[in-house]
């Protein structure tokens, strides 16, 4: 069975979507069949991939709320396929409140596709609401990007409690794949302290992957709708991304 990886952290701006897109590309490059799912109503992943969310009439929303077949877009240059999102998805938070088997709506939407992919990567929204919850219920693994900053580190306890709660009930198979330190500026002493704290404390819980350096190249690449490795192949952040993809392929 394929792996279903939720990129999750309830904090915004910690590079979830950036990580999702780049990891999806690297796994695709390793000849894996990859499907990305944009579960954020802000549709950053959809935008990053070069689609215009407002123009889309079929998104993950129709699959979740109206139980229609998932509208899969092929993006061969990016080496993955995508189920896009748009702002309609914000309505799903309310529309699903009393829905039958609500917790399993994403799992059920993915079920008929599972055999077609080696990896399904879910880009979660920055919240602990229903959209994140059903993402974690559908996932086999969680990958947590964590910014190497004091405040971001503070949110991990809540994050881990949420994961434990889901593991205890709705998804007993869910595994924490690891933490990816992000936005790391090695010249900044606070970032170094935060990275040390992450390594010391969180490595007891799950693997800590090599840090992704802070660099404007990530944002520049996204403006061109490209993963970093296609935008700037020699960029120092390409190596940790390749390493992470290899780990996901061999160890998960
Ligand atoms: P999230 O999905 O967690 O909200 P994003 O992936 O959208 O975070 O990233 C938030 C912003 O930070 C974006 O503008 C993105 O281009 C930028 N960004 C992501 N990774 C890096 C990085 N390593 N260095 C600098 N900026 C980054
Ligand atoms: Mg995002």
Automatic annotation (TrEMBL):
InterPro entries: AAA_dom, DNA_Partitioning_ATPase, P-loop_NTPase. Residues 3-175 form the AAA domain. Pfam families: AAA_31. It comes from the Bacteria. This is Chromosome partitioning protein ParA. It comes from Merismopedia glauca CCAP 1448/3.
């Amino acid at each position: 069975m394929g792996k279903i990886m939720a990129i999750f952290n309830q904090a915004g701006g910690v590079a979830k979507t950036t990580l999702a897109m780049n990891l999806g590309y690297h796994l695709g490059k390793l000849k894996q069949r990859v499907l990305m799912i944009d579960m954020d109503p802000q549709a950053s992943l959809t935008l990053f991939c070069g689609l215009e969310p407002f123009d889309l009439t079929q998104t993950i929303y129709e699959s979740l709320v109206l139980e229609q077949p998932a509208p899969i877009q092929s993006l061969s240059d990016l080496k993955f396929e995508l189920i896009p999102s748009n702002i309609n998805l914000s309505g799903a938070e309310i529309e699903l409140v009393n829905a039958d088997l609500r917790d399993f709506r994403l799992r059920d939407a993915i079920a008929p596709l599972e055999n077609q992919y080696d990896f399904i990567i879910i880009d979660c929204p920055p919240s602990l609401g229903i959209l994140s919850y059903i993402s974690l219920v559908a996932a086999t693994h969680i990958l947590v990007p964590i910014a190497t900053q004091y405040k971001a580190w503070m949110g991990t306890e809540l994050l881990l409690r949420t994961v434990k709660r889901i593991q205890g009930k709705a998804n007993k198979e869910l595994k924490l794949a690891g933490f990816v330190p992000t936005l790391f500026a090695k010249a900044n002493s606070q970032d170094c302290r935060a990275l040390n704290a992450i390594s010391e404390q969180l490595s007891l819980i799950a693997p800590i992957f090599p840090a992704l350096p802070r660099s404007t190249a990530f944002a520049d690449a996204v403006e061109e709708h490209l993963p970093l490795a296609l935008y700037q192949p020699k960029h120092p952040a390409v190596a940790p991304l390749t390493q992470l993809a290899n780990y996901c392929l061999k160890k998960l």
